[in-house]
Amino acid sequence: MIKTSRPKSRDLIMDAMESILNQDSFEVATVDAVIERSGVARGTFYYNFPSKNAVIHALARRAAQPMVLRARERLSNDAPLSEILTDIAQGITDWNQQHPKLGRAVLSSTYDERGVPAPSDPNSPESFRNFLSEVFLMSQQRGEIREDIPAMNLSLMFTGMLYQGLFMWFVRPEAANLSLWAEQSTSLFLEGVKL
């Protein structure tokens, strides 16, 4: 008899959160709702994730993995920064357009209940900003872009430009062309960092 393995608790929790967010909203996706949908015990939830926001951030990292792998491959093949950033910006906008409720939850989870930014540690190896910082550092080392601005600052600037477009799109999707925003933000950013 072939033994089938049960999905890992972490994956069950993430899948439950994703399902709830795709059907409802950030507010409905409570820890209790995720526990009920995933079928895990409360202790198992908190063993894997300290909070609802931590699950949402894990979902965002999981969604970003293909884009990160593609960018790393392109970097190893000496692709120019412009191609890599364009792909990343378009990947972010495409994903948010395909998963607007989940995208809104990701942005909502970056603020606490008072509306104060609650950023994760940008130096964490799992951080998307840390990944972008690595991209910019490699581009600086290759002499593609200016070196007078720390790579992490460039990462924060670039993501800030993209997030502003996402905020506008989530508030008034009919008035914001998200793909155009990504294209123009990338172009403007690249113009500012060129040698």
What features would you describe in this structure?
The chain is mostly helical and 195 residues long. It has two domains: 49 residues, Arc Repressor Mutant, subunit A; 141 residues, Orthogonal Bundle (Tetracycline Repressor, domain 2), CATH 1.10.357. It is built from nine helices and no strands. Helix 4 packs across helix 6 and helix 7 packs across helix 8. The longest helix has 25 residues. It is globular. The termini are far apart.
How many domains make up the coordinates?
2
* Beginning-to-end CA distance, first to last residue: 63 Å
Extract low-pLDDT stretches: none
Classify the helix fraction into a percent range. Answer: 55-70%
Count of individual beta strands: 0
Oligomer: single chain
The CATH homologous superfamily of the largest domain corresponds to Tetracycline Repressor, domain 2
What Rg do the Cα atoms give?
18 Å
Order of helices and strands: HHHHHHHHH
Count of DSSP helices? Answer: 9
Biggest pleated-sheet summary: none
Characteristic key phrases:
Tetracycline Repressor, domain 2, transcription cis-regulatory region binding, 2 domains, Arc Repressor Mutant, subunit A, mainly alpha, HTH-type_TetR-like_transc_reg, 68% helix, 195 residues, transmembrane, globular, Homeodomain-like_sf
Could you give a quick summary of the protein structure above?
This protein is mainly α and 195 residues long.
List the helices and strands and how they pair.
Elements (H helix, E strand, L loop, with lengths): L8 H15 L7 H8 L3 H7 L3 H25 L4 H18 L1 H9 L19 H14 L9 H21 L6 H16 L2
Helix pairs in contact: 1-2, 1-4, 1-6, 4-5, 4-6, 4-7, 5-6, 5-9, 7-8, 8-9
